[in-house]
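Folding follows sequence. Below is one example:
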Amino acid sequence: MKKSLVVLTSLVLVISLLLIACGAPAPAPAPAGAAGATGETGAAGTSGATGATGPAGPAATPAPVFESISLTMSGTNSQSDPASIQLQWWMDEVTKRTGGAVTFRAFWGASLFPPKAHLAALEKGAIDVMGATPNFWASDFPMTNINFPWPGNPQDPRILVKGMRQMFNDFPQLGESLAEHNLQFLAYGPFTNYRIMMNEPLSTIEEFKGKKIGVVGRFFGMWLAEAGMVPVTSTGSERYTSMQAGLIDLDLMPMQHQFSTKLYEISKYYSSIPVPGWALLILSINKSKFDSFSPELQKIMLEAAEDSEDFAIDFITGYVESADEVMKGAGIQTIQFDEEDLENWLKNLPDLPAIAAQELEDKGLPGFAWGKRWQEVTTELGHTWTRQWAVKP
């Protein structure tokens, strides 16, 4: 009996041990790439001493690496001109944003080509980047000039630049006209406002009658002639000697040119007449060259160009304030023009913008739609018009 009990007890013990053994978890396999006894890092980068790590996060997108290139930029203005300062800012930003891969050789003051020859030079690839006013080629880019001489045009550089950027987006004909000459648009840039500088303190329409005024472009001459002035077409470089010799009594130019040519040395008065302002500069690049760049580089150039507009708006505001201080110190005075005369003058002017709009329509371009939209856009940006212009007959 005792022998049977011992056998039964032994059998139960063996079965229990087998059950325990079968239920025990299997040892965990070593993680891939785990180190051996030495603790060295394996292929997966996990040390055997620390065990397995959690799942890796998403891999960071590597910054694009750009091929080193050097581009040639030619500007028609002097290096110290506000328009050139904007160009230089854009070039510096492109260089910075590409990690130094894209650099520029800059030539200022039309030192490579005469101003009017710049379009052909950029179109053919003799230069890569250009900063110039499209007024040199008004017949090639008619839509960039339609509202340039509008009476009552905004003078605020923010409204002018932001307004033109919106017009560029609204009217594809602008970009198409540039592309026809192998140009890729990059940015607009403000000039300082046009001002009337005088040899004597004139304040009424009657006093301005018969005075010879230096101008560029036919539309400026048309609306100034309505006030009895005598327009005399001359280049900016001629104005100093013309004023000095008495060939003209008044000068109409962007203030930055009057300042840089030191007209304030011989003419001591400004008129408060609100001469139209304009976003004159167009920064552009050879389209064939631009199209050869990677999408990443194109994006950098376009974004830096739009950012340059904001830089230019702030810069031009400070520039005007500083230049005015210098000229005020040299004895320049601003003479207030008679408000009633100004109101009557603008109210009775022919609709000169309608003439420009009709000329565009004759070329198959949307002149009146452009004129209507320009007034809408600038009004939305905060400008107040004294009357409606470019009214379709």
Summary: Residues 295-329 form the longest helix (35 residues). Residues 1-55 have pLDDT under 50 and may be disordered. The first strand starts at residue 69 and ends at 75. The CA atoms of residues 8 and 224 lie 127 Å apart.
